[in-house]
Amino acid sequence: MNRRKFLGGAAMAAAALPGSRLAGAAANPPVAVDCGCDPFAQARDASYAVNTGSNPEAFRGLSSGLKITNLKVFGVSITPNSDRPYVFVKIETNQGIIGWGEATLEGKAQSVMSCVLDMRDFLIGNDPMQVEHLWQSMYVHTFYRAGPVIGSAMSGIDQALWDIRGKALNVPVYQLLGGPYDERGVRGYYHVESVSTDEALAELKQNAVSEGVSCLKVGMPDHDYEWLEGNAKITHVVKYLERIRAGLGDSIDIAIDFHAKMSPSVAVIMCKEVEPLHLLWVEEPCPPENVQAMARVSRRSTTPIATGERLVGTYGCRELIEMGVVDILQTDINHVGGISALWKVAAMANISDISMAPHACEGPIGGLATLHVDTSIPNLLVQEICSFVIPGQKEKIWEEWFGFPAMRMVNGRVPLPVGPGLGFNLSEDALAKYPFGGTKPMEFVYHADGSVAAL
Amino acid sequence: MTAVAVNRRRSLLLAQARAQPQSRPSPAAAGPHAVREVRAFQVAASQTNSAYVVLQIRTASGLTGYGECRTLTSPELKATADAVTGRAASSYEVLDPLVPPAVRGALNMALLDTLGKATNAPVYRLLGGPTRNKARAITRLQGDSDAQLVDNLKKQFAAGYRAFLLPIPVPSARNQGSDYIRAAVSRFEGMRAAEPTADLALQCCAELSAGDAAALATALEKLHPLWFDEPCAVSNIASLHKISDETVVPLGFGRGIADGGVYQQLLREGVIDLLRLDVHTHGITGMRKLAALAETYYVDVAPWHEGGPIANAAALHAAGCIPNFYIAQLTNPAPNSVRDGYFTLSAAPGLGVDVDERQLEKGQIA
Hints:
- Chain A is of the alpha/beta class and 455 residues long.
- Chain A has 17 helices and 12 strands.
- In chain A, the strands form 2 sheets. In chain A, strands 4, 5, 6, 7, 8, 9, 10, 11 and 12 form a 9-stranded mixed beta sheet that branches. Chain A has a 3-stranded antiparallel beta sheet with strand order 1-2-3.
- Chain A starts with a helix and ends in a 23-residue tail after the last helix.
- Chain B has helices at residues 3-19, 27-30, 74-84, 92-95, 104-119, 123-126, 146-158, 178-194, 210-220, 237-246, 260-269, 279-295, 309-321, 357-361; strands at residues 35-43, 52-59, 64-69, 134-140, 163-167, 199-203, 228-229, 251-253, 274-275, 300-301, 328-329, 338-339, 342-344.
- In chain B, helix 11 links the parallel strand 8 (251-253) and strand 9.
- At the A-B interface, helix 6, helix 13 and helix 14 of A face helix 1, helix 4, helix 5, helix 11 and helix 12 of B.
């Protein structure tokens, strides 16, 4: 039995939540007087019981009539060694409406699949329309709040619940969010595959222009950077970016991903040096978990700074937003907490005049879900498409799954998904061709002396 | 202009630019629920309400949605109609920056009301709720003297309210002394004695200096008021610090604040414990956004307004979809609508308000 079948089977075998057990508890919840560290306390005194389930009964009069009946999780490896097998979440209801979401977490596939299933018993029996309520419960009742594993699991569940709500109300999700800003779709950018030669750069420009692409993102030219760097590496990066600007011209916006490979000390020198190139942004100039360090980079250069793909929840973005540290937030719908959290982050960012360029480097469901938010927020800059100007095999697989070229641009815009909910149909059979290959780590990168470098 | 105001203006201009389609969207693109007609009706002030305006949206599909705002001029109504006619009623976010600020809250309510009716769902369900099954209620105590206030407390307690905004004595001049503080404490103690289980918040309407507000709050600390509402005007953050540094009584602000950047600054500075969101100013979506901001500071929102039943409904739908809602101050809600301290949530589609159009007709804004 492969891993996906095993997880799916285990999911179906679990017992339904005994909601009736909680009927009294919801009205008059028992009080736990300590932290619950004595597992025998409950056996000694029944009144000591803590509520370990959900409370759908509390909403009896206000229920939509829909109930979550099942939750399945799928690990999907489109190559056997993929470091980011797609983690898809499927939620089923008592009225036949199903919802899909994505919980992919690079390098930690099995952790997040298990975490999704950890939430299963809680979710079953609840009204799937109450996504805000369920989101809060998943976040707050997890006690440790959310890091990337819990955040990604919640993201997959949240997206699936929005899919269900849109389908139940027979409207696309972007209509629930007050969009669309533009019927033609969402401005996107592709990654740059190779610019090793001037010919390759010229061909890239030609292809981009003919496809109507207005923005591209490039990676760093070096394998690793020390926390302090001298003239050689700094000049190498600057020359590399100058060559790209010269090759692509001024009318294509260029973003560069530092991928948090540098220290703030080195990053800010780079950002200062490349100011004359008027880049759209420098992404993750330094590691992301220290806001003061990021602020130190952004305050010393006019080059716009983008970051945020690794942040979870509005809580995780608050300091960056309130300090007005960055120009652009790259919140990832598969980690931040789904559509609910991405929308809130965008609303908060707008108050600080920060633009949104949502990250999307995992599977297609998260990408399609992001489009619904993109077209419904006033501060969208551009949507990431983790793909190249010329599509490859991955895009063929996505098209085979959905029946349309998901996350591909037409005249520089990604068309909005069509139909209620997230706007696609997906069958379990379509995914079966790409069984789960297990968790595979992300790249390991070391300095010349064997010490650890950022990937 | 402050940096925040400049930023807001720029964001708005960019949003407007994005919201203006290259060409007018075709009727087909706007879908069956395209806005066909926008009307507005002036409602006169009464003993219980300030004057306000009812906005009515009609769609090509025959749906009607209602919203409320404080004022609306004829040119503003025309600008609103020009901006939204022919556009999808569901595109409430897109249309927001295209209409005059005075009508934004009302348009948001009316469009969400329409979308709810189109999808046969109460507005809180459209927006991911319910997050609660009832909404905590607070009401303002009426009266000038302590005796009148006690009478009113008993009357409103019997009617089902359990939380009350208690007006503090009106100061006679700047910089109050011991008499004033004692009078305020005595008023509060009188209320506590009359209804020991009632929760009391202090209502001030920004009539005090920051120093007096701090002294009064400190004197009342041990009586545990729910919060101190609008202790002074929000114009100088340093003076708000004077209050929040000197007392642990929670502070509520919001009257007259339209800009999210101001709330952000109050939160960042740690001088606000409750966002008093004006339903007319922010609409439901504006309240959701500000609540999302406040959530990350572990601060709740408490909607209020001085209008009519549509804003009442909007406040309760916001309560029903916002996780960090605390309490709603409605204006002249229907008799018997509060039970044991809570308002009930409507299960009807949209905002769930029945509007008698004939009552409104005579106030139609041309």
